[in-house]
Amino acid sequence: MSSTVARPGSAGRAAPRASSAVVFVVAVGLALVAAAATLGGVAAVTAVGAWGQRAARDLPVDAAVGVSFAAASLLVLSGTEGRRMGWLLLVIGVAGAGATAGSATALVAGASGVASAGEFVQSWIWVPGFVPLLTLVPLLYPDGRLPGPRWRWVAVASVVGMTMLAAGSALFEYAEGPAKALHLGAAVLLLPSVVAGLAAAVVRWRRADGLGRRQLNVLLVVAAVLAADTAAQPLLPWPVGALTQAVAVALVPVAIGIAVTRHRLYDLDLVVCRAIGGASLAACLVGVYLSLFFVVSALLPGGPTVGAVTAAAACGLLLHPLGVRLNRGVDRMFYGDRAEPARVLQAIAVGIREGMDLGGLPDEVCRVVVDSLRLGSAALALGDGADARVVATLGVPVGPVTELPMRHRGDVVGALRVTARPGEVGLGERDADLLTVVCDQVAPAVAAVRLSDRLQQSRASLVTAREEERRRLRRDLHDGVGAALAGVRLQVETAQDLAADPAVSGLLRSAASGLASAVDDLRGITEDLRPAALDDLGFGPALRGLAERVSTPVITVGAEVNLAASLPAAVEVAAYRIAAEALANAVRHSGARRVTLRVTGTAARLSVSVVDDGSGLPERVRPGALGLASMRQRAEEIGGALMIISGQDGTRVEADLPAEAR
How far apart are CA 12 and CA 368, in angstroms? Predict the structure, then answer.
């Protein structure tokens, strides 16, 4: 006998997949019904030759809605994102198919009950086929989610308003009074919903970046095409106007489907960019033409003929330079200064020329690269291979990282690591070429930064070795020579007490005095080598004792010490000396009532801060005064940094030190 044991949770996971499959099959069925109804209606109207009738004027647009929206809904529902948007597209498509079928039935059936039923359906079903484009689509595009919880009421108002509008349209021929009341209520709900939909699109635009901005760009371009075609309808004869509007309407679900599923969305950037540039150029030329036409026609003899020639000539002269400038501006909007490498290099050179600290060059390079090219992130590493060390980063890397080496005199001195713009699959060839030029130009400066970094590391290593040797010498002197001298002094003093001869006693007294002086000198030497409290009490208790010693009845000094691990001798000494100097300055010069010493350590860094509530530093501080230079030097010689912030509400001295020896 054999048995099969199901894995825990396998049935629970299979049920949602089966449910999703059933739902998708239902969606496919509805889309097929919509397509069949649309195509059947078009075929029926064609068969009876009813396209010339007035009721068939809008049939191409309804048919385009029925087919394109239904097809786009399946594309969206087949993916993993934007399911609500997919169902909304399907509803619009089914409504368009219903409008097509209703109109075709009314045209084909003639004066009969079937024709009346078709007219009834066509009278109200246009509402779910059109109004959601103005309300729900802007609210849910592109991911099927509302911009925030507060927008839920807008969606509810839109659905209720559409229901009232459809009901009023269906009842208008049978009960005009209630129908008008429903229309009024629908207007009260739908007009604010349309405004809120536009506001939602604006909110998404301001919040979006990268891929989200591209998704919005696609729909905005298609919406602009549809608006332009709608504005041109009075000038277009039938069926040209109906066909152009059908094509423009069909572009809307296509754009939504592409944007939501992100299918080749990145390759549309160039199309969108050129479309915006072309539309801007056309708008500018139309404005120039009309302005010159009316002005010249009114001022010069010859009337419209001279005006038309003058305006056309001006537009011809402006066509190329204006097109170049507009395309360049749009390209900069999408890609930053990619087309102008000199501008990127100039931004870096300005920082160097204006006296930027050499240590700030990596941060400046990352900033200029990200800001100028709109890239996702940038990081600059010094060295090559396993020895490479990242010294500056900007942005959060998302997607593949492209590394571009920096070479100086044949050696790789560093690397620039970048990620593409958010939403792009990778770094483009033009971006890579520009960044290669940037790397070649800044490589000598990066080599200098690398040399400075190596010198700083060597300096920190020397300081660490010096402090470790001082700690060893102090221990040896204190525990060895100091203890021996103290023992000899005790023996000499004992011999002095036992000596009966005054001369011998005098010599022993002199010897004991000399030994006492030698012990005092030795104690002073050991104190200079390293603060005794660090070895006698430990780093944390030594800092707390330091705070207690400088505290007075007028000034309260507190200490908060939180360490993760033991510290190298150099770091302990630097932190202790900086804390002692900063506390002394606060107590003597700040006029504060409370001073707080905070020391926080992690595995990599140690933060030492002294904060007081005094009057702050004077506007002009004499060089070398208050020990500021010595504190900064102690921090920098072990690879740290010192920051001083002063104002009317007090002064903050903060040292950021490495918590490990280099």
Answer: 51
